[in-house]
Design brief:
Strand order of the largest sheet: 1-3-2
Number of strands: 3
Radius of gyration: 20 Å
Number of helices: 4
CATH class: Mainly Alpha
Helix content: 55-70%
């Protein structure tokens, strides 16, 4: 039974490797380090907070390296930018109101 499971895992790993390397969509995946650079966070944060909590969707693991769809990362990045811009606008508004009341 263990041999079958090991063979199935090896076959799946081979399939994932070939799919990722030979696919015309190979540019659609991002590694953890690339995600961390884009979001300006640590790799540990990406793994612990975003991947383990399934925020960035499905993860492909090849040879111990994790890959995520670029579209999922882009959507998350845009969402966080929108939230940050909204908070900055609100901070500016509150600061102006406080200055006008003096």
């Amino acid at each position: 039974m263990k041999i079958r499971v090991q063979l199935a895992r090896r076959a799946l790993l081979r399939w994932q490797r070939t799919a990722l390397r030979q696919s015309r969509h190979a540019g659609e995946f991002m590694a953890v380090a690339e995600i961390a650079r884009l979001l300006n966070v640590s790799r540990g944060y990406v793994v612990e907070k975003l991947l383990h909590s399934h925020v960035l969707g499905p993860v492909v693991i090849l040879g111990g390296q994790r890959y995520v769809l670029r579209s999922k990362v882009g959507a998350y990045h845009r969402k966080r930018q929108t939230i940050a811009r909204r908070a900055l606008r609100e901070l500016g508004r509150v600061t102006q109101e406080a200055g006008a009341q003096r």
